[in-house]
Specification:
alpha/beta, Rossmann fold, 2 domains, seven-stranded parallel β-sheet, six-stranded parallel β-sheet, 15 helices, about 15% strand, globular, DUF354 domain-containing protein, DUF354
Length: about 350
């Protein structure tokens, strides 16, 4: 069977990495298309995943530029995919894949775990053959996106509990970054905004950087989303911040951290899955998954930078791991729904 996977953002690489291995073990032929955005291409190269860069890069923050970039990429993807005659197409929050797959008559699975990216998920959900979501998202929120009960397939827990199953951290990442192991290690993920130091954009996050960056007992590794964010962080010249110049083994870094502070959902949930204390500074509307994690005490909403507990972690917390094969089988249910 010929399988198409589209990866358009950094979190797609760890999500699909174990699924790619399973597909190949089952004897399927897998082709990966990718978009040049964030650290997607660097992570694909680091993971040794063969891929084709198809279409233009991300269109940026402006609506008009995004629409133009999407139109150009849809055209490029259609030409790329049509020649390969795929049997099934899989994506996680890459809404362009199901749109193209539908025009080619290819069954597609569209997965996501944050329901309030409404424009994106409405396009993806309506075009896809099946929609794969966590059990935590209520039916009424999915209905509004066109993810009807007939096409929705659900999985228990967090997607991170599946793709991090069996994960063992590589401690060499600490030495590669020149980290002092006697200090408290904080891992920080930036918000989507490019202008990190515009206090009207995310004042809490700016406070977090100041608190961590000036504490000599802390090493805070900040993982930017864009080159502009990386430049802004370096220009701030906060002595306890470490800003990698390239994509790194973020999952190992999170697993070895004493705490994580993230303005984005994926790294929050990776920390939860790995048993690491984690705070969220997310300024948007919380999705059902994060609501459930907060209610269960597994994710801590941060109200003030002074609330951070900057202490060394004693031992590893218990982890809940789930079989990646179960997630893959749900994605491949697009073939059954097509029949």
């Amino acid at each position: 069977m010929r399988v198409w996977i589209d990866m358009t953002n950094s979190p797609h690489v760890p999500f699909f990495r174990p699924l790619l291995a399973l597909l190949e073990e089952r004897g399927h032929e897998v082709h990966v298309s990718a978009r040049d955005f964030a650290q997607t291409l660097e992570l694909l190269q680091a993971a040794g995943v063969a891929h084709d860069v198809v279409g233009p890069p991300h269109g940026g923050a402006g609506r008009g530029a995004k629409v133009r970039a999407m139109g150009a990429r849809l055209h490029a993807l259609r030409g790329w995919a049509r020649r390969r005659r795929f049997d099934v197409a899989l994506s996680h929050a890459s809404h362009e894949l199901p749109l193209v797959a539908r025009t080619l008559g290819v069954p597609s699975a569209y997965a996501f775990d944050y329901e309030f990216a409404r424009a994106q998920h409405t396009l993806g959900s309506r075009a896809a053959t099946c929609v794969i979501v966590p059990e935590a998202i209520p039916k009424e929120r999915l209905d509004r996106l066109g993810a009807t009960a007939a096409k929705v397939r659900r999985y228990p827990g967090l997607k991170e509990e599946y793709y991090l199953s069996g994960f063992v951290a590589d401690a060499s990442v600490l030495d590669a970054l020149g980290l002092d192991r006697s200090r408290v290690l904080a891992v920080v993920r930036t918000p989507p905004e490019v202008s990190l130091y515009h206090r009207h954009g995310n004042p809490l996050f700016a406070d977090v950087l100041e608190r961590l960056g000036r504490d000599p007992a802390v090493h805070a590794v900040v993982l930017p989303r864009t080159a502009a964010q990386r430049d802004a962080l370096r220009q701030a010249a906060l002595p306890s911040l470490v800003v990698p110049g390239r994509a790194i083994d973020a999952q190992s870094l999170v697993a070895l951290a004493d705490l994580v502070v993230s303005a984005g959902g994926t790294m929050n949930r990776e920390a939860v899955a790995l048993g690491v204390p984690v705070y969220t500074t997310f300024a948007g509307r919380l999705g059902a998954v994060d609501e459930a994690l907060i209610a269960g005490g597994r994710l801590r909403p941060l109200a003030s930078a002074g609330d951070l507990a900057l202490v060394k972690r004693a031992g590893a917390a218990p982890r809940l791991e789930r079989a990646p094969s179960a997630l893959l089988d749900l994605l491949l249910s697009a073939l059954e729904l097509r029949r």
